[in-house]
Every structure is written in structure tokens, then in C-alpha cells.
Specification:
CATH architecture of the largest domain: 3-Layer(aba) Sandwich
Number of domains: 3
Structural class: alpha/beta
CATH superfamily of the largest domain: Alkaline Phosphatase, subunit A
Helix content: 40-55%
Shape: elongated
Radius of gyration: 31 Å
Strand order of the largest sheet: 6-5-7-4-8-9
Number of strands: 11
Number of helices: 22
CATH topology of the largest domain: Alkaline Phosphatase, subunit A
């Protein structure tokens, strides 16, 4: 009770300061003082709550928490003091006078010009790094240094132009404008200095500021500090320190745990089973309602939830799907992880185009099925060159690639049609139905792999099929994606080839739609979705597993009726069996740390 009474003092202090130093008559009536106190109490406490709410979880920590009361009291006193000082006769008068600039005896030499260039570079980099970091955090959320450096290595062909324009408009262009403005500011020959006459609590103070002298003396130091600060800001937010530290430490973890599919002795059934593998962009279990294991009151993906319950979905007691490990958190890395059982790692010092083949030493899902005579197709709704997807799937399994450009040739979309990354999922599913009808009649077992795109960040793509169910557009996109894939599955189940076909629906990686997750419980563990429909195997225990997307590699093969001696391939374990995954064996933190480190074995044998 005493602690709460202390919260009454800051408004009293503010009124006292105003009465002592301000224009308020100290002999004013009692009623006026009471009214003034009430007004100040309301203003001060409102501002204190606003300030505190930005840095302190009030809802979670305010109840019966003496530390919260102490912090609140300090914030309240600070707000009261600032408002009181600002309102009790504080005044500033600004004037100027001629400033005598000493002319240099000699013209600036080469060293002076060199310093000017270095200072200019530091200023630009400080601005550019700061604004670029904000852009990365705003647009990619879960981005890591490994993903950023990989994207810088691969060709930018196929990138959504909205991202490029967004970067130019919010990072590059403002950086250039601010840089020019700063150069003008620090290089102008200021011939006047500013004089400040301040009055605080009845005391008069004088101060002078000479821009020419100030910039001449301190520009180098300030530019260096700003550069270091912006670099530290970038490093902290992308955890660059851990990336560099792990990049200097070799790990034998991959070498010790990798099972080569070439020597695994895989046994395919005599009647080989078809596979329809639907990789859904950024599809998480998180989008389900809390009573279904998700993170929200509403269920954004009810159709996918029903498919999960009606079919097979691997999960643990408190997590619904696959956890995300280093080297698996963006689209091409997720595809590599789920089709090879390996994370995507590239040496920091090498470029993507130095390698004649994408992961040339790896035996992938596509390589295995090619040897078994499978007809393989990859369908994406964008330029398949983006991120090296075309190279990976053509070089590993000779997939036929269907993308934005083939969709125009095949009459799926008009010649000049272009939305989002290429074309939306509405047309992707039409293309898929057309292709499946064709390849199912060719007399070969087939592997039809497709990647959806509408749920990509930022905001997703709101197509004509989307309904306005939620205020936030991304929720509407998720619901629309759920309905579309459910309708597609229903269509498949009506086809003649379905009886001998396994359908796998999987999220590729965790979403980078930062704003959507701002209000989510911070302790909730996000996982990607997995659903196995009509598999040719029975799971020993599907509901008590700790696993990652690396385990999808052998698990998908097992769902097609393939026998895997030892039930392990790559770094993955067959979830249909009771073989422990690496996470179950070592723990998530251990696996995460080891896969973050350099692997000379990986670079030597797989790249």
C-alpha cells in the first residue's frame, strides 16, 4: 500500500516546481491547486504509461510486482520533472554574429583530401547500414547472417521486383539524400556562429556554437562513431558475432552423423508409388487456433487443420511440427534440407557461380527417384532461376521445370501477365491439375513437386479468391491458401491415379512476415506444417517426436513404401520408425550449434 502511495508524489513535485519557479501564483486558492494537481496527475501518469509500455510488458508484470512499481515511479518522476521544467519559464533566444574564419596558409594536400574521402565513405556507410538493417528487419524478420550472405552470393534473377523497389525507396535512395545533405552541412563555409541565451529557473545562461569550427574538429570522430554504431546495430540484429565465431570453428558433427543414400541399400516396392509433394510457402502450425495447438484465438487455416487431423501429421506433445535448424530457413535451403537431409552451407569466401554443379557431391531425393525411373516435375509460380532452384532440381534428378515463363508458353497466363513473384496460386493449381493429368497417363511413376507462393512475405498476395475475414491481410491470405490446397487435395482424390499416390503437404520454412507475429506469445515455439495423405507406411508413434525439416527426406521416401535399412538418410531419421532423430539424440541446442559451425567435410564432399 505504501508503494502505491508513493506514486502520488511526482505530480506534487511538478506542481511544487511550477509554484516555486514558474508563473503560477504560490498564493492561489486551494481549489485551484487541487484542480491543477489532478490535471497534472492525469497527464503525467498517462505519459508514463505510454513510455513504459514501449519497454515493459505491463500486462504480464504489473500485478503484485514491486519491481514494476519502482520502475514506474522512476519513469513517473522523470516525466514530471521534464514537464515541470518545460513549463516553468524555460526559454531560449537564438541570435547570430559574424565568425572569423582563418584562411589556411597552404592549399589542402593529398593527405587532407584522402581524409575527406574516408570521412565521406564512413558517413555514407553509417547511414546506409543503419537504414538497410531496418529494412531487413522490417521485411525478413527471422533473417540470419547465413541467409543474407547466401542471397548475396547467388544471382538476383527472379527476385520479386517489389523487394528491389522497396529496398531502393526505403534504404538506398534515402541514404543518398541524407549523405548529400550531411556533406553540404559539414563542408559549407559557415561565416556566422549561433548565440544562445537560455533562461532556466530564473537563471540566465549563454552558449555559442560555431558550425565551421565544430565540423572541422569533430567530423572525423563523429563519422567514425556513427559507422561503428551502425555496424554494431547490424551485427547485433543479425547475430553476426555468432556467425563469425562459428565460421572460425570446424565441426565434425555432419561427418559423424551423415548417412550416404548411395550406400544405404534402399529397397523400393515392386509397384512404385507416385508422389505429389506440395511445399507451401511459410506454412506453419502457428496459424492454428490455440485449442488446436497454434498461437491464436482464431484458426487461420481450418481446412489444413482438418487435413492434419484426418490424416497423418508428425508432432510432439507441445509442438506440432518440424523445428527449423541453421541452413534450412529460406526457400532453396528448405528445399535442399527436405530433399537431401542436409542444411545448405556455402563457404563465406566462395561465390555460388564457382561451382559447376549445385551440391554436386550430394545424393538427393531427385537423384534416387531418377535411378528408379520416375518422371519428375517441379512447378513454381515464379522464375525458377531465383535462388538456384532450377539448377538444383535439374542437376539432381533431371526434373522438368515449370515456372512463370513456361506458364505463358502453355497458355496458363497471358503473355504480359505478371503479379507478385510471377503468378498467384489460383493459376498454380490450374497448372498443377493440367500437368498431373498429362504425366499420370505416361506409364511411369511420377514425382510431382510444387511450391506455392501466395503466403510469401511481405503481406502475402490477396487474390480474387480471398475473402475479407480479418483486418490484417496476411490472415486472409493464409485462409485462402488453406481453402485452395484443400480443394486441390480433394481433386486429386477423385483422380484414377490417387490410389497409388502419396500426398505430402509441408511448410518450407518459418514465415518472415514480421508484423503478423508481433502480438504472439513470445514463449510459443513455431514449427512448420507436415501432412501425409495416403502413405504406404504406418507410423510407430507419430505424436511424440522432436524433429526438424531434415527428417522429411527419409520420411517422405518411407511414405512411398521405400524400405530404409537403419531408418536414417542424410542427417534425417525416418519418422515412421522409432529411430531417434538428431534432435531427440542430442537436443535442439546442440544440433543448432553444431550445424552453425564450419564443416570442412561438407565443403570437401558435397560442394
Amino acid at each position: 500500500m505504501l508503494a502505491y502511495l508513493c506514486l502520488l508524489f511526482p505530480p506534487f513535485a511538478a506542481v511544487a516546481i511550477r509554484s516555486r519557479y514558474g508563473k503560477l501564483n504560490s498564493n492561489s486558492g486551494f481549489l485551484r491547486k487541487v484542480i491543477e494537481y489532478c490535471v497534472w496527475a492525469l497527464v503525467i501518469n498517462s505519459l508514463a504509461l505510454i513510455v513504459l509500455n514501449q519497454f515493459y510488458d505491463i500486462g504480464a508484470k504489473s500485478e503484485n510486482n514491486h519491481m514494476f512499481i519502482l520502475v514506474y515511479l522512476l519513469v513517473e518522476f522523470a516525466v514530471a520533472f521534464i514537464l515541470a521544467v518545460a513549463s516553468c519559464g524555460f526559454s531560449v533566444k537564438v541570435s547570430s554574429r559574424e565568425y572569423q574564419i582563418e584562411k589556411p596558409a597552404d592549399k589542402p594536400g593529398a593527405f587532407h583530401l584522402f581524409c575527406k574521402v574516408i570521412i565521406s565513405i564512413l558517413i555514407f556507410l553509417a547511414i546506409f547500414i543503419f537504414l538497410s538493417t531496418n529494412w531487413i528487419l522490417e521485411n525478413f524478420g527471422l533473417v540470419t547472417a547465413e541467409k543474407l550472405f547466401f542471397q548475396l552470393k547467388v544471382p538476383f534473377k527472379g527476385t520479386d521486383t517489389d523487394f528491389i523497389f522497396s529496398f531502393i525507396l526505403t534504404s538506398l535512395f534515402p541514404s543518398v539524400v541524407l549523405f548529400i545533405a550531411v556533406l553540404i552541412l559539414i563542408n559549407r563555409n559557415w561565416r556566422r556562429e549561433l548565440l544562445f541565451d537560455l533562461t532556466v529557473f530564473g537563471r540566465k545562461l549563454k552558449a555559442a556554437f560555431a558550425p565551421y569550427s565544430f565540423f572541422k574538429r569533430f567530423t572525423a570522430a563523429i563519422s567514425s562513431v556513427c559507422f561503428v554504431a551502425s555496424t554494431a546495430y547490424f551485427s547485433f540484429n543479425l547475430d553476426l558475432g555468432s556467425f563469425i565465431r562459428y565460421s572460425l570453428e570446424n565441426s565434425s558433427f555432419i561427418q559423424d552423423n551423415y548417412v550416404d543414400p548411395k550406400t544405404a541399400g534402399l529397397e523400393f516396392p515392386e509397384n512404385k508409388r507416385n508422389l505429389i509433394y506440395i511445399l507451401m510457402e511459410s506454412m506453419e502450425n502457428t496459424y492454428k487456433s490455440a485449442d488446436e495447438g497454434g498461437a491464436w484465438e482464431e484458426n487461420y487455416i481450418p481446412e489444413l487443420t482438418e487435413l492434419s487431423k484426418a490424416n497423418l501429421s508428425f508432432s510432439s506433445k507441445d509442438k506440432l511440427g518440424a523445428m527449423q535448424l541453421p541452413g534450412t530457413g529460406w526457400t532453396i535451403a528448405a528445399m535442399v534440407a527436405q530433399t537431401s537431409g542436409l542444411p545448405l552451407k556455402t563457404p563465406f569466401q566462395n561465390l555460388y557461380n564457382k561451382y559447376s554443379k549445385f551440391l554436386g557431391g550430394v545424393t538427393t531425393f531427385g537423384d534416387i527417384l531418377k535411378e528408379q525411373g520416375y518422371n519428375q516435375v517441379l512447378l513454381v509460380g515464379s522464375d525458377s532461376d531465383f535462388g538456384g532452384r532450377k539448377d538444383y532440381f535439374t542437376q539432381h534428378g533431371e526434373y522438368k521445370i515449370l515456372d512463370y515463363f513456361t506458364a505463358k508458353k502453355d497458355g496458363i497466363i497471358a503473355e504480359n501477365y505478371k503479379v507478385w513473384w510471377g503468378f498467384e496460386d489460383k493459376y498454380l493449381y490450374e497448372y498443377a491439375k493440367k500437368t498431373l493429368t498429362e504425366i499420370s497417363q505416361q506409364g511411369q511413376p511420377f514425382n510431382f513437386t510444387m511450391l506455392t507462393v501466395d503466403t510469401h512475405h511481405i503481406g502475402g498476395y490477396v487474390c480474387k479468391l480471398c475473402e475479407k475475414e480479418y483486418d490484417y491481410s496476411y490472415g486472409n491470405v493464409l485462409s485462402c491458401a488453406s481453402r485452395q490446397v484443400a480443394e486441390f487435395v480433394e481433386w486429386i482424390q477423385q483422380q484414377d491415379f490417387y490410389e497409388n499416390t502419396t500426398i505430402v503437404i509441408a511448410g518450407d520454412h518459418l514465415s518472415m512476415e514480421t508484423k503478423f507475429f508481433e502480438d504472439m506469445d513470445k514463449d510459443y515455439i513455431r514449427t512448420t506444417l507436415n501432412i501425409f495423405i495416403n502413405p504406404a507406411a504406418s507410423a510407430v508413434n507419430p505424436n511424440n517426436r522432436e524433429f526438424s525439416t531434415l527428417d522429411m527426406f527419409p520420411t517422405i521416401l518411407a511414405s512411398m513404401g521405400v524400405k530404409i535399412p537403419g531408418n536414417r538418410l542424410g542427417l534425417g531419421a525416418n519418422l515412421f520408425s522409432d529411430e531417434p532423430t538428431l534432435i531427440e539424440k542430442y537436443g535442439f541446442e546442440k544440433v543448432e550449434a553444431e550445424l552453425s559451425k564450419v564443416s570442412k567435410y561438407y565443403y570437401k564432399n558435397f560442394l
